[in-house]
Amino acid sequence: MGQTAIDSRILRDALSSFATGVTIVTTVDQAGEPVGMTASSFNSVSMDPPLILWSVTKTALSAPIFQQAKHFSVHVLAADQMTLSNRFARSGADKFEGVDYQLDDQGVPLLSGALTRFDCRTWSVYEGGDHWIIVGEVTNMEANKGEGLVFSGGSYATATTIQPPNPDVQNDDGPIEDLLIYNLARAYVQVSSKFHNAVEESGLSIPQWRILASLHGGKARNFADLVARTFVSPKKMHHLLAQMQKAGWLTVEGENSAAMITSTAQGQAQVEHLFELGAEQEVVALGEAGKPGQERLISLLRAVIANTNE
Question: For residues 72 and 120, is the Cβ–Cβ distance under 8 A?
Answer without folding.
Answer: yes
